[in-house]
Amino acid sequence: MLVKIYAGEIAKTRVRANLLDPGIVRPRLRARAFPGEDPSRLAPPDSVADAFLALALPECTRKVVTASVWFATE
Q1: For 48-73, how does the pLDDT look when each residue is reduced to its tens digit (9 = 90+)?
Q2: Is the pLDDT at 35 greater than 90, yes or no?
Q3: In the 3-class helix/strand/coil scheme, how is the chain assigned residue by residue?
Q4: Domain ranges of the chain
């Protein structure tokens, strides 16, 4: 909700506001925070990197994206 409000406030500028929810991924920090968790059940961080990169492109018009929706629609 906060990102949508901010996007509305900056709509007439060249600044864009996007939100990406990558879901649960397995960066090293998560492994330290949840040592008993099986990392093989989680997606690696690089599996969602393309979604972040696509949001940075000038032609991107998406505002709110979850990684699972992104990959299902691309």
Answers
A1: 888 888 888 888 876 555 555 444 44
A2: yes
A3: CHHHHHHHHCCCCCCCCCEEECCCECCHHHHHHCCCCCHHHCECHHHCHHHHHHHHCCCCCCCEEEHHHHHHHC
A4: 2-73
How many Å apart are CA 69 and CA 73, to the nearest integer? 6
Strands 19-21 and 64-66: parallel
* 19/45 Cα distance (integer angstroms): 16
d(CA 4, CA 38): 35
